[in-house]
Amino acid sequence: xSQNKIPLSSARxxxxxxxxxxxxxxxxxxxxxxxxxEVLQDPSLSESFLAAGGVLPTNDADTVEQLAIDFCQLxxxxxxxxxxxxxxxxxxxxxxxxxxxxRQFCEVVRFEPAESASGxxxxxxxxxxxxxxHILQLVAESEGDSLDHLLEIGRCYAVRHLLWPGxxxxxxxxxxxTDFYRSLPKLTRQFLELETVGLNEVSAPE
Length: 206
Known about the structure:
The chain is mostly helical.
């Protein structure tokens, strides 16, 4: 397989990609509130967000409340929800092998979860996206042997922790009751598919 099919093969656009991962991470970690919605509606961000397939609702109290309800019903519970945790979708239980692997990667790259991820296990999709954002920012700031090492870490990380959420994304898009949360899984799927081209042909390291 040619190396240009592996994500992180170049640091050229690493910083921009890091920003996209970080935004998606925040959107999966907590409901869309009025403050973040205002940020998304800024012209400097809204055009690219809409072009990527996102939907921007109106920023009023009723809409924000409906978004919070939809997010809670989809991902928080207390019942019939879709826990956005890799361990749940791979082994049917919380805090499984994926959590252990995430902890190891976080230690290697010295990642500290954002405040928005407080109380979440490390294999939450939002945290996983944030870790890749962190790795990419390190890539953007590195060179030489350090850069090569980070690129390999990023490739291994993507194999272990960014190929799993297809079922979650499909189910959440189907169940969502608001346009925004119908669009978020689709947008996330499209972005991850572009990022992980070729990785389905690569075996995860033992």
